[in-house]
Amino acid sequence: MKKAIYPGSFDPITFGHLDIIKRSAEIFDHVVIGVLNNNAKQALFTVDERVAMIRDLVEPCQNISVEAFDGLLVDYAKRIDASIIIRGLRAVTDFDYEIQIAQTNKVEYPKIETVFMATSLQYSYLSSTVVREFASYGGDISRFVPNEIIPLIQEKYKR
Ligand code: PNS
């Protein structure tokens, strides 16, 4: 069985992430969305909030699960017996960072393969940072994230 991890901060999840998740689930037997619990980074949502939000959105899909992880991604991959890491590439600007991480992960755990998926054209500008920035100024984020999570994001910016 080909089990893949799609790791990320997902703070918050966007249509770009969901597009990669949906396409990955059509290729691999099982996709685990690994939500990084990174204490060093000041996040908008707690890791539990992010996991719950994503679970609600992917709930109808049988071959997708959502979990929090901390520590090294390769250790997590070993623990859950996943052999593939999926990462989305929006533009060449993502590539420098992603190739370095992919190669480092391969050195650390030779059995792991990183598969890069080209972001769909309509989401090539989109990032969680863009969503947070728009939401912080009360902007319309309906083109960026599913309706279900808009109130949760707006709530975070209420004074
Ligand atoms: O959504 P992001 O923030 O771009 O995701 C980055 C992520 C979670 C894939 C990356 O930071 C990661 O794998 N972190 C876990 C720690 C780790 O394994 N680092 C390896 C760096 S060489």
Q: Approximately how much helix is present in the residues?
A: 40-55%
Flag low-confidence runs. Answer: none
Please tally the β strands and state the result. Answer: 5
Q: What is the ordering of alpha helices and beta strands?
A: EHEHEHEHEHH
CATH superfamily: HUPs
CATH class: Alpha Beta
- Gyration radius (Cα, Å) is 15 Å
Query: What sort of overall outline do the alpha carbons produce when their principal axes are compared?
Result: globular
Overall number of domains: 1
Largest sheet: 5 strands, parallel
Task: Give the distance, in angstroms, between the N- and C-terminal Cα atoms.
Answer: 48 Å
Strand order of the largest sheet: 3-2-1-4-5
Secondary structure category: alpha/beta
CATH fold topology: Rossmann fold
Share of residues in strands: 15-25%
Bound molecules: 4'-phosphopantetheine
By DSSP (H or I, 4+ residues per run), the number of helices equals 6
Q: In CATH terms, what is the architecture?
A: 3-Layer(aba) Sandwich
Mean pLDDT: 96
